[in-house]
Design brief:
This is Acyl-ACP thioesterase-like C-terminal domain-containing protein. The protein is of the alpha+beta class. Helices cover 21% and strands 30% of the residues. The chain has helices spanning 3-17, 55-71, 84-87, 168-174, 217-235, 252-255; strands at 23-28, 34-39, 91-102, 116-125, 129-137, 147-157, 196-201, 259-266, 275-281, 289-296, 299-308. Strands 1-2-4-5-6-3-8-11-10-9-7 form an eleven-stranded antiparallel sheet, with helices on one face.
Length: 314
């Protein structure tokens, strides 16, 4: 990544995020480093065809909230949360894995989601990576978050694009200030031979500021693959010899209940105009869970595990 594009990214954050209506900001250092805040919430384009909040929007709200506090002065002294402005002068933080836990409250239309309250906190600091946590709450319910995301972020040198140790001062100041004894681990999954295969080409709208595939595009492709399999089965019931037979648990009623849990491993980058294959499958004993591997010429790019709610009362 060029230094010039890194500077453009920093300018973009300052120019546009400064106008984001973030209010009620407060910071605590004990027992964990945590910033609390309020944001406008879910807009009308955050809902899918079933009327549920879509996962792509949930991921982006979490992501942009985190980025906001990378560069937001917290007081007149210019101090930033976790001293991100100092730590990120010569490096970037890349997400290598993430885990979303989503409450049934998110899918309840009677629970307000405008505005929403957020909590962003440090979970763990290692030598070259850190784990953070961000949760969002309805203004009417503080006992249970609408959703929570934990992410494992690796420190990457701006010029070499290789992992680099977090600064000594950062490790000394923040190690032990999180709520986890170790970082987030999303385990690899082994793709079976028999899967549902869904080819895609990375489009410009799938990419981010750095011209890499956006972190939320992968879940969109997996969802499209699942619904593609469903459509084929509805046209012609799946036979054992057909690829769609490897998604036996697919049913529109089940999918409309909403996503309960999402785990993602980001393994390598993909770029605009590259051709990828999205492989999706299920295990016989886990009817509400889907596994996916996004690959380029058999090179793993991203792996996902996606679980839906089992019933309306789950």
């Amino acid at each position: 990544m060029s230094t010039g594009r890194t500077h453009l990214w920093a300018s973009w954050k300052r120019l546009y995020l400064q106008h984001w209506a973030v209010t009620n900001i407060s910071v605590t250092d004990t027992p964990q480093c945590c910033v609390r805040f309020t944001i406008p919430g879910l807009s009308t384009d955050c809902f899918d065809g079933d009327g549920n909040p879509n996962i792509d929007s949930i991921m982006k709200i979490s992501g942009i909230s985190r980025v906001y506090f990378f560069d937001k002065p917290l007081d007149d002294s210019g101090k930033r949360f976790l001293d991100f402005n100092v730590m990120l002068k010569d490096r970037l933080l890349f997400t290598v894995s993430t885990h979303f836990r989503i409450s049934k409250l998110l899918y309840n239309p009677d629970i307000p989601k405008w505005p929403i309250n957020g909590q962003y906190s440090l979970s763990n600091v290692g030598n070259s990576s850190l784990t953070d946590k961000i949760s969002f709450y309805s203004p009417d319910i503080t006992s249970e978050p609408l959703w929570t995301q934990r992410s494992q972020l690796v420190s990457v040198n701006n010029d070499t694009r290789q992992p680099s140790a977090l600064p000594d001062w950062f490790q000394h100041k923040y190690k032990g200030k999180g709520g986890m004894d170790k970082g987030l681990a999303v385990m690899p999954i082994q793709r079976p031979l028999n899967t549902y295969s869904y080819p895609i080409t990375v489009q410009w709208l799938d990419t981010d500021f750095f011209r890499h595939t956006n972190f939320s595009s992968y879940i969109n492709w997996v969802l499209n693959a699942i619904y593609s399999s469903l459509s084929k089965q509805e046209i012609e019931p799946a036979q054992c010899s057909s690829s769609s037979a490897f998604l036996p648990g697919v049913a529109r009623a089940a999918l409309s209940r909403g996503v309960k849990d999402l785990q993602i491993r980001y393994i390598s980058e993909s770029l605009e105009n590259q051709n990828l294959n999205v492989y999706v499958w299920q295990e016989e004993s886990q009817k509400n869970k889907f596994f996916a591997s996004v690959e380029r010429e058999n090179l793993q790019v991203c792996q996902l595990q996606l679980e839906y709610f089992d019933s309306c009362t789950d």
